[in-house]
Amino acid sequence: MTDQSSTSPSPEPGRIARPSPLTGRSGWLRWLPGLLVLRTYQRAWLKQDILAGLVLTTVLVPVGIAYAVASGLPSICGLYATIIPLLTYALFGPSRILILGPDSSLAPLILTVVLSLSAGDPQRAMALAGMMALVSGLFCILAGLARLGFITELLSKPIRYGYMNGIALTVLISQLPALFGFSINADGIGQKMLAFTQAIQAGQINWPSLVIGSTTLMVILFFKRSKKIPGILVAVVGATIIVIVFDLATKAGVPVLGSLPQGLPAFSIPKIYASDMTTVLFGGLAVALISFADTSVLSRTYAMRKGSFVNPNQEMLGLGMANLLTGFFQGFPVSASSSRTPVAEAAGGKTQLAGVIGALIVAVLLMIAPDLLKNLPSSALAAVVIASAIALIEVEELRRIYQIQQWEFWLSISCLLGVTVFGVIPGIGLAIMIAVIEFLWDGWRPHSAVLGRVDGLKGYHDIARYPDARIIPGLVLFRWDAPLFFANADFFQTRALDAVAASPLPVRWLVVGAEPVTSVDVTAADMLAELDETLQVAGIHLYFAEMKDPVKDKLKRFGLFDRLGEEHFFPTIGAAVNIYIKKHQIPWIDWEDSGE
Questions:
Q1: What is the pLDDT of residues 230-244, one digit of tens each?
Q2: Domain extents in the chain
Q3: What is the CATH number of domain 446-583?
Q4: Which residue from 20, 31, 9, 98 is spatially nearest to 299, judged by alpha carbons?
Q5: Full-model pTM
Q6: Based on the number of CB atoms within 10 Å of its own CB, is 309 exposed (0-12), middle (13-18) or buried (19 or more)?
Q7: Going by C-beta distance under 8 Å and a sequence separation of 6 or more, which residues neighbour residue 415?
Q8: Residues 123-158: tens digit of each pLDDT
Q9: Distance CA 475, CA 497 (A)
Q10: Where are the beta strands (DSSP E) in 486-575?
């Protein structure tokens, strides 16, 4: 260790830190960012990391247990799924501050699979959840090695807000019975709401449980923004003390957590039925997508605060290793935590050592004090989960999206309804499908324009936006604002021919402003050949301007470049215009050439 400043190194003003070349003869250290951090660890950070680890522990225990129960699993699994990811990510994860563990956004996914396949058997439920973690981990590892860290960028913000709001609503509804002190047996949001309503009408409310749970929730929300007072710890400890002092578990029938098994998790390979594998596979893939989306966003957010950079592929690898090892040690799928990470940061944590210390303290508690939380009321655990679900809900951003682009707002609402009506896993599939449709629609029916000369402005502009723009007689300048591929090839041809037909004078040249065209496929190239033939019959010549070299290379491979001839490709629209007016002796005064 070196005795340097107690603060993390920051970049120079006006610069952003980028990853430096990693050392090692075989390059293996690039897969273990934790070791690289350890090699440059500063002694002054140790005290802050220890303190942050102690503070973090006060949140790790109740939250881990709460999310295990919310996932339909034994409470001990939540602590196993807290210890292993923190230790693993400290070695494989690229972020110095991120805290991994059970998360509310994954609970309904896990619960969907567990409830449908476990038949109430806790051991089978643990095996199913463990296998989901293995599937998610393997997918993330393979995607990280294949450098597919960009895949979550395919989901737009409105779509992510939609499915996260749907997940939040699902979590809220699933925890209401526990908050009110009873349990129900129902699948789907509609059936759960019906069963919940019927239970209330039948007088099954345990009023002491409801009071404890509601008070716990209010305390958590009240201290939510406090960096000095751990609201979750205060609320959970207070609820437990009340149950003990008044013996509410015995006298009032308040459901409590009970004793936890003593000892650390043992290595085991999750064993499930072959018939369960399809459901588990899809559930694990959905978990991988959501967990990496959340982890990458949170990781980038904290990296930007520090002026640093996090490799998304290494982030995916670190998340994958955390899930993989958690699945082998009786845990369940995990993700980065947007609630516990700020706790570590606010407590002064400098590196992943804070998370390691928190994990080790939890492990010690399991070994020497497994009965410490046996009187923790279930309604308080439900309050912890509900508070986290409330934090997932996004309203302000959706209001902003509605004001600026309503169709994206309704996309978000569609994703929300998909998650709540059809279930979490089908809802995630719907979100992905909508994302693909949204992407294809933008390229399928893109904007195009006929260009003219606007006095006082450089270049050529859309005549629909500038009705006074001057059009060069016999020349149609047509701009296409998208890649050319199979889905929009016919539409391009139709719009180009419409532009020619709309010209007030007979057309000699059609010049395609191709600067926005970033790619061309075989179908589009064949369409361009057909368009050229159609125009030649009418005595019109087809030209291109500002086409990128990689696109030209494709046209050369397709044979279209040689067919048209190099003279049919101009470096700029202005060059095409100059050649045209000189060749056809067009009386034309350009604004820029007039000396104004």
A1: 787 788 889 999 999
A2: 32-437, 446-583
A3: 3.30.750.24
A4: 98
A5: 0.69
A6: middle
A7: 158, 159, 161, 162, 163, 166, 427, 430, 431, 434
A8: 999 999 999 999 999 999 998 888 876 666 666 778
A9: 13
A10: 509-513, 541-545, 569-570
